[in-house]
Structure formats: structure tokens, C-alpha cells
Design brief:
The chain has 446 residues and is of the alpha+beta class. Helix content is 17%, strand content 30%. It has ten helices and 24 strands. The strands form six sheets. Strands 1, 4, 19, 20, 21, 22, 23 and 24 form an eight-stranded mixed β-sheet that branches. It is globular and about 80 Å long.
Length: 446
């Protein structure tokens, strides 16, 4: 099996604010009771994509909790941004050829997922020219000169690492900023990229494909909700309206950071990630008070609004009452790895070894595919001068698939242009939030 070389939990790199939120969430159970802070606000109007700034205060007349009060005040929008953490600073693995994964326990899987979502929602950027997506989504225009927080909404289905490649000093320098050309994402694909850090099974194209009934998407329902009632057209009419509201409220109370809420109605869908433990308030008879219970979430959406002192199309640490969630037809979902708290270890291998003699004579990297049980987010090849230890050439790709051909690096590295000498070729791959060295070979250029 793979040997852990260095273990650096992601939470180690978080600012104190986010770390305290995560620790609070982990300390609670799957349901909680307590008085909701009267200073909190929740969205009462607007579209399912969390548009506008309309809000109403939580009622100050809190029902009686049937359990001990617990402080779970959610974090408000803030101007402070989470520190981005490069994958190589999260974990590092050395691949030793094993193909058998082991179960990893003790990781803060939920923290990893939520932190990545926060990073996607908080990266600052500007554009030199207007980016006009109004032909795709009404009113969706990113204006030149304004500072935006969070990746742009579009149809490219990209991850944060891909978006960062087109930024120079915080300004988009991409030649093509088209709807599917500029690295951006949508509500469902942003959650997918976060989930794929810890899940080898999460896989879908859009919200409609993320319904728990869809085979092989890795998504599971939460609580006592009968997803077999879903008619393929509307979660609201086919599931929510025929389910006892108390069952839905109980399912909401089971949500934890990293889980999600999903709705799909007549061709239009939306997903939101839970970013803090729900504030669940109980009546004196033990039932949940939906007007006072609150879910805090992050979502990528199409509504550009003022946020955290700048502009954003992301809802960041927004709050909805249980009642409003139910009215909008949202149902709770997650992935098995988050629910169980464990996941298979990432396993990365190469299908064929490199021929050092061939590389030295021709400059050609021989065949062989990097394969992982998780999505490979990045593969990087570096050639080092074996005498000085200096990196002389480097190239990288972001395949976001479970296969990557080593031969992809032949042209970009141009080994044949190296002067005579002894060199070392190393290829690393990031998969399942872990960095593995998959190729390490010394070759000689004549």
C-alpha cells in the first residue's frame, strides 16, 4: 500500500475563525437544539440561487428546547479570506506500486471539503474587459475593473486550480473568456470538485445527475426520505409535497458541514453546500420549530451582488430557515465518505516503467498511464540536474480524470534539447487530496 511520507491536515492551515467553526461542528452530534441567536438573519425571499440582500430576523420568541441549549451561532459574511492551501501542502504520498487501497480514518473529511468550497468562493479577481454571459444566463455580466470574490459562474465545470492558471496578479489573462472556455463552474460542479477531494465515487455532470437515485453518482440521501417517489421532473412536487414535513425537518437537522441540499424542478436545478452545523430549535413537544431553525450554506449561483466588501456570484455563509428550505423544495444529500467519516486511501500507479536509456538517447518519455482510484487533479513532470539539484525543465497538466498519459510531457519537456549530462526525471500526481511521486528515474544525455 502507499506509505505516508508527510501528513499535514488541511485544518492546520486555516485561519482561527474557520478552524473554530469546524471544531464546533465536529463537537456536535447529528442533531442539535438551542436558541437561535436573535442577531442572525435568514433569507426569506429571492430565488433558489440565493439572490439579493432581502432578509428577515429570526423570531425572538424562541420555542422551548427539549435538550440542553447549545451555542451554534453561524459565522456572518466577512471580509477576511481563507488562506489558499496548495494540494502538496495537504498530504504527500509515495507510490510503491500497490493497487490495494486501505481505509483512512481520523481525517477531517468535512473540513477538507468545506475549506475547498470556501477557497473557490473567496478567490479575488478582476477582468480587463467585460465578461458577458447574458446570452446564457439573463443579466450575468462580470464588469471590467470590479473586484469579484469567487470563481465565475459558467459552463466550464472547472476546479479552483484551473481558474488560478488564468490569473496574473489577480487579473484574468485568458485569451478566451467564453461560457465554456474560461475556467469557472456552476452550483453542482463546484460541490462535485470539493467532494472529489475525499471521494473516489462522486461523479455527475449537473444537478439533475446528482439526484440520489441516479446510479454510480456517489450521492446518497439523508434522513427518512423516500427518493423512489422522484418522478424525474420535480423534487418539489414528487417528493417534498408527499413527504411528512416533520420528516424533512428531521433530515435537515442531521446535516453536517460538507453535506448538500438539492432541488430540481422542471429543468431547473440548484445545489448548495452546508457550511456550518444547522441551528435546530425544538418545540416543547419535541417537534422541530421550522421558523426558528436555520441552515447556513455556500453556493455558486448566477446572481452578482455586493458581498464581503466586493462583488460575487456566490452565496457565502448564507442562512435559510428550515421552513423556507422546504417551501423551495430542497432535500438533503451527501456522499458516503462524509457520512461514514472514512474513505479509501488514494492509490496511484503507472502502467509501464520509463526506459532511462531511451529517454537519454531520444528524449522520448515511454508509454505508460498514471492511474488513480480518485480523480487526478494535477500531474507535474520535472527534470533536475543530478549534479546541482537544480530544476531545469518542468511541465504540468490538469486532467481531472482517473488516467493521464506520461507521454503527454514529451513535447513540452523537450528532453532532446538538454546538453550532455546526468539528469533525474520526476513525475508527481495529485489525486484524492494527496501528492504522489509516480516516476523517478535517472538518465544520461550523451
Amino acid at each position: 500500500m502507499n506509505r505516508i511520507k508527510r501528513f499535514r491536515p488541511l485544518a492546520f492551515f486555516l485561519p482561527a475563525l474557520f478552524l473554530s467553526v469546524l471544531l464546533c461542528a465536529c463537537a456536535g452530534g447529528n442533531s442539535s437544539a438551542g436558541a437561535v441567536s436573535t442577531s442572525a438573519t435568514v433569507e426569506e425571499t429571492g430565488s433558489p440561487s440565493v439572490s439579493g440582500d432581502t432578509s428577515a430576523p429570526v423570531s425572538t420568541e424562541s420555542p422551548v428546547s427539549t435538550t440542553s441549549p447549545q451555542s451554534l451561532t453561524a459565522a456572518p459574511e466577512t471580509t477576511s479570506l481563507p488562506n489558499p492551501v496548495a494540494p502538496e501542502n495537504r498530504y504527500e504520498f509515495i507510490a510503491d506500486g500497490s493497487s490495494e487501497p486501505v481505509v483512512l480514518a481520523g481525517e477531517d473529511l468535512r473540513g477538507i471539503v468545506v475549506d475547498y468550497m470556501k477557497e473557490m468562493a473567496s478567490v479575488p479577481w478582476k477582468c480587463e474587459k467585460d465578461i458577458d454571459y447574458s446570452s446564457n444566463v439573463k443579466g450575468l455580466i462580470f464588469e471590467a475593473g470590479k473586484t469579484y470574490l469567487g470563481m465565475p459562474y459558467n459552463g466550464a465545470q472547472c476546479a479552483l486550480e484551473q481558474f488560478l492558471t488564468v490569473l496574473e496578479d489577480g487579473v484574468i489573462k485568458a485569451k478566451d473568456t467564453g461560457w465554456k472556455a474560461l475556467p469557472g463552474n456552476s452550483c453542482s460542479t463546484s460541490i462535485l470538485h470539493a467532494w472529489q477531494l475525499v471521494s473516489p465515487t462522486a461523479a455527475y455532470e449537473s444537478t439533475v445527475d446528482a439526484i440520489p437515485l441516479v446510479s454510480n453518482n456517489g450521492v446518497v440521501g439523508i434522513g427518512d426520505i423516500d427518493w423512489s417517489l422522484y418522478d424525474g421532473k420535480s423534487t418539489a412536487s414528487s417528493v417534498v409535497e408527499v413527504t411528512d414535513p416533520s420528516a424533512v425537518f428531521r433530515a435537515y437537522s442531521l446535516l453536517l458541514p460538507g453535506d448538500a441540499l438539492i432541488r430540481y424542478v422542471d429543468g431547473h436545478g440548484h445545489m448548495m453546500m452546508v457550511s456550518d452545523q444547522p441551528q435546530t430549535v425544538y418545540n416543547s413537544d419535541g417537534t422541530i420549530a421550522p421558523d426558528n431553525s436555520v441552515i447556513t450554506f455556500i453556493d455558486q449561483n448566477t446572481d452578482i451582488h455586493e458581498s464581503r466588501g466586493n462583488y460575487s456570484c456566490w452565496g457565502y455563509m448564507k442562512k435559510y430557515k428550515f421552513k423556507l428550505m422546504l417551501e423551495k423544495g430542497f432535500l438533503p444529500v451527501s456522499i458516503r465518505e462524509l457520512i461514514e467519516g472514512v474513505r479509501p486511501s488514494p492509490v496511484i500507479s503507472v502502467s509501464a516503467p520509463q526506459d532511462a536509456s531511451l529517454i537519454g538517447r531520444t528524449g522520448i518519455l515511454t508509454g505508460g498511464n498514471i492511474r488513480g482510484n480518485y480523480v487526478i487533479t494535477k500531474a507535474e513532470a520535472t527534470i533536475w540536474d543530478n549534479a546541482t539539484g537544480e530544476a531545469v525543465k518542468t511541465a504540468s497538466v490538469m486532467p481531472f480524470s482517473k488516467n493521464c498519459a506520461v507521454s503527454n510531457f514529451s513535447n513540452t519537456l523537450a528532453v532532446y534539447t538538454l546538453p550532455s549530462g546526468v539528469y533525474k526525471l520526476e513525475v508527481t500526481a495529485t489525486s484524492g487530496n494527496m501528492l504522489s511521486t509516480v516516476v523517478s528515474v535517472i538518465f544520461t544525455r550523451p
